[in-house]
Amino acid sequence: MNKYYSTKVSIFVFSAPALILFSVFCVYPLLPEIWMSLNNHDGFRNLGFVGLDNYKDILASASFWTAHKNTYLIVGISVFLGLPLSLMFALFMDVQTPKLRRFFKTSAMLPAILSVTVVAEMWISFYEPTYGLFNSILRSIGLEAWTHSWLTEKNTVMPSIGLTFLWQYIGLNAMLFYTGIKTIPKNYYEAALIDGASFTQVCLRITIPLLQDVTKYVLILSALGSMAFYSQVRVMTAGGPGDLSRTVIYQMYYVAFETSEFGKGTAIAVVFILECLFISFLIQRFVAREKLEF
């Protein structure tokens, strides 16, 4: 029986339904977009084949590269700051009493289930230059010189939006890490306790290494989720001031719907898809390559 199921024909037959669904719903919709990116299209009419001119134009646009710089800044904040903080929050929750753990779980999930618009409007009020929370705190402790118009200054607008994004999803990532921690067998911790290992040693030598599959999943989720960063920018700054807070997705939306250059907009979308595939490949290739069984 095992020999029958391990043949190439059997593998193809059993995987065919999934491959067909993936092709119909994921691959096929890309083909019209790729074709549109090779044409001058205003959203209603095809105005002629232009080949790779749309790609040349978007790559020569300063706004395109500004959007990329902003997008990868958000990815960096999410991956290099958000993930370690999420992991530390999960480790902290794991050692709390059941009552406190329930409180922290609720607190962690609450921002993630709120509407992006609600969260963005709340943080806009925090960043308000005159009566906002941050400037009020800075003035109350004598740091008037540190106050800013957070969402309209070049150096503060993207970090401010990034902090909003980080706050909303750091708890969700922490819950994913916490779920992974609970799947680790208790006998590893009991053996470490008998050997006199400290909390830090247990975390570094047992918990974190055994979380590699969860870390890989959260890394992909955070990286690709940050790449698709749009809603907060739309609500908080509408890409401004100027084009300083546009992300790749916002730039795609702006070019397609604000200037009616759908050919160039879809060209940005195709480049964006290729970047996401490349990032996914790098993570799959270099993170958690060996499967752990415990």
Sheet with most strands: strand arrangement:
1-2
Order of helices and strands: HHHEEHHHHHHHHHHHH
- Total beta-strand segments: 2
Q: What is the average of the pLDDT values?
A: 90
Q: Tell me, what's the shape?
A: flat
How much helix is in the residues? over 70%
Structural class: mainly alpha
Please give the count of helices.
15
Distance between the termini: 28 Å
Radius of gyration: 24 Å
Describe it.
With 294 residues, the chain is mainly alpha-helical. Helices cover 72% and strands 2% of the residues. It contains 15 helices and two strands. A two-stranded antiparallel sheet has the order 1-2. Helix 3 crosses helix 15 (262-286) and helix 5 runs antiparallel to helix 12 (212-227). The longest helix has 33 residues, at 62-94.
Which key phrases capture this entry?
mainly alpha, single chain, two-stranded antiparallel ribbon, 72% helix, 294 residues
